[in-house]
Specification:
4-stranded antiparallel β-sheet; alpha+beta; globular; binds flavin mononucleotide; 180 residues
Length: 180
């Protein structure tokens, strides 16, 4: 798939075929490609927890859904959850974050998440990045230390959703020439 097609056909998939597992070699390939993502000072400040255990998936999914708000009710359908934990950066990226007042690990995690989604799309798999979940409960379920943060969960599986047209802000509202 060329990059344009990849970008245009990647979407947040919110329905999956739970009976169709993700092939281990595809999962491995997606993760290996994702780990080539750039990061500030090459710190790679993350761990990715691959959740495939049936019972744990249900627990993770419960942490992500909010019934009252109708949020993330689809997450039990995904046969894989990739939970991204923020790890300490290296010395230079940590100093850089303070001096420049920019929390580089969060930027890095956003980039690795997008690599995961695009690599998955290339393999014919669907994803949805989730930022909405009960973090403390999820940490407990996955044995994540108290001093760590879980920033994202990405659902992964064979999507049963048709391709949607992209809704985006008008180009001129986002891109300007020479000045703000
Ligand atoms: C940081 C982040 C957090 C997100 N959290 C959620 C979420 O909790 N639930 C959800 O259904 N979608 C979530 N999304 C997906 C966005 O809603 C989606 O990317 C956006 O609406 C654009 O649609 P598209 O991905 O289909 O192009 C999140 C996306 C990002 C980047």
């Amino acid at each position: 798939m060329d990059f344009e097609t990849l970008a245009l056909t990647r979407q947040s998939d919110r329905a999956y075929d739970r009976t169709r597992p993700v092939e281990p070699e595809k999962l491995d390939k997606i993760l290996r490609i994702a780990l080539t993502a750039p990061s500030a000072c090459n710190a790679q400040p993350y761990k990715i927890i691959v959740v495939q255990d049936e019972k744990l998936i249900n627990e993770v999914a419960d942490c992500t859904s909010a019934k009252a708000l109708g949020m993330n009710h689809f997450t039990k359908q995904a046969p894989v959850h990739l939970v991204i934990v923020e790890e300490p950066g290296n010395l230079t990226s940590s100093i850089g974050s303070v001096i420049k007042d920019k929390h580089f690990p969060w930027i890095d995690i956003g980039i690795v998440a997008s690599y995961i989604c695009l690599a998955a799309r290339e393999e014919g798999l669907g994803t949805c990045i989730l930022g909405w979940f009960q973090e403390e409960r999820l940490k407990k379920a996955l044995g994540v230390p108290k001093n760590r943060r879980i920033l994202l969960d990405i659902t992964l599986g064979y999507s049963t959703q048709p391709l949607r047209e992209k809704k985006r802000k008008p180009f001129e509202k986002v891109v300007t020439t020479n000045k703000y």
